[in-house]
Amino acid sequence: MAQPVWSDPVPLALGTAPAPEYGSGSLADLLPTLAAGMDVPGATATIPELTPADRNCVFLVDGLGWEQIKAHPDEAPYLHSLLGSSRGGTGRPLTAGFPATTATSLASVGTGLPPGAHGLPGYTVRDPDTGALMNQLRWKPWTDPHVWQPYPTVFQLADAAGVHTAQVSSPDFQHTPLTKIALSGGTFRGKLTGEDRMDLAAEQLAAGDRSLVYTYYSEVDGKGHRFGMDSDAWRGQLMYVDRLAQRLAEQLPPRAALYITADHGMIDIPFDEESRIDFDEDWELGAGVALLGGEGRARHVYAVPGAENDVLTVWREVLGEQFWVASRDEAIAAGWFGPAVDERVYGRIGDVVAAAHDDVVVTASRREPHESAMVGMHGSMTPAEQFVPLLEVRS
Question: Percent helix, strand and coil across the chain, each rounded to 5?
C-alpha cells in the first residue's frame, strides 16, 4: 500500500492578491474625477465612467460594502435598486484601497491620493521619527497632522476654485486631526441626526452654482464591529441608512449628482482558535517582532533590527496559506499602497505586511482587547472588504 506523501504548506502567491484599482476605479479617484468635471484646476478625471455634474454630493456610509448591499435586498431595497447605477451605470464597484480601513480610506477620499502618498497606510503604523505606534484614527500619540499628511485636500482645491464646498457630519468630527488633513476645505456643518444631515446636505448642494458636498454616517460600521452582520442591530442600521439615502436623493436640486459609497466592507469572524490567532499567545509569531501594527486582517509587523528576514520567513510559514504575507518592498512592488510610496511613508509600512485571504484574523488579546473582541472586521483585499459601491442618483 502506497504511503502518503507529506509536503510543506505552500504560501499564497503574492500575485494572487487583487491589488486595488488605483488610478482608474478606487476611492482615491472619486473626488478628483468630480472636481475635474467642475473645472477645478489640478484635478484629473480618472474614473472614466462618470459624467460631470455642476453639483456633486458624496454620501459615505462607514462599513457599507458592495457585497453587503447585494446580500440584503430586503433590508436595503432602495440601495439595492441602485446597484445597476454604480460606477457610471456599469454596475461595478470601486475598490477601497489597502488596507480597507476607515482612516486610510477617508484620507484617500479627501486627498484624492492612494495610501502610499497621503501616508495613512493602516489603522496603526510605526512613526519612523519616534519609533512609536501611531493610531491614525484616534491620532494617538499626537503628531503634527500637516507634517504627517502635507498634501491639500480636494475640498481645499475646489474651495479655492470658487466651488461651494461643505462637509456635513457629526459635530464630534469637526476638529479632529483626521478631518483637518483629509476632509477640510470650505465649510464644516455639524448635525447630530442622520435626517438632519441629509436635509442640510441637500441645502448645501443647492447653495452654489457649482457645489461639492460630503456627508457621512458611521453606525453601520459600529454595529457591525460590535454585533456582526447577522445581528438585528446591524440590519436595523442598514434599514435606517437605506431610508436616509432615499431622503437625500429625493431632495436633490437641479443639475446635481448624488454618489453613495463606503470606506470598506466587512466580514464576521467566528470566535474559535482556528479563526482567531492570538499574537499575544503565539511565541512563534512574536519572535523577533518589536511592534505589531495594523489590525486583525491587515497587519504591519515591525521587526527587531536584523530580524526582518527571519520574521518574514516565520510569518509566511505559519500564516502563508491563509494570508498574503509580503515584505515591505514586495507589498510596495505589488501596488498594494498605490503606484508609488513617498519617502516619508516608506518606514511607516511594516517590515512584513500580512493581508488575510481566509476568514481569519491575527488578534492581540492583551495589546488590543477592544479590537480583539469585535465580531465584524475588515482591512484586507477580499471582495467583501475591498469592494465599495458608487451608487448614483441624478436630478
Answer: 35, 20, 45
